[in-house]
Write a structure and sequence with these properties.
Blueprint lengths: L1 H28 L4 H34 L14 H6 L3
Helix pairs in contact: 1-2
Length: 90
Amino acid sequence: MASRKSSQGADSFEKKMARLEEIVSLMEGGGLPLEKAIALFEEGVVLSKECRGVLENTERRITLLMKGDMEVPFEDQVPVNKNEERENGG
């Protein structure tokens, strides 16, 4: 179930990034009425903050994992070497 949550979060992140790229393209293309440009800019700022939050949270999780302060979030761990297999009864 955790992988579904991660998948949904990644999907949402990817969709937000795609929309942000679309907004940038529209604004760089020019020719937008001022009100439309401002509305797109506001949407872009919101998306940017949301994406930054996801990235910062992911960075914190990775840092904790690398320090060993957090359990590895994988349900099915495969032994890295033959010694681990023997120790785990495999």
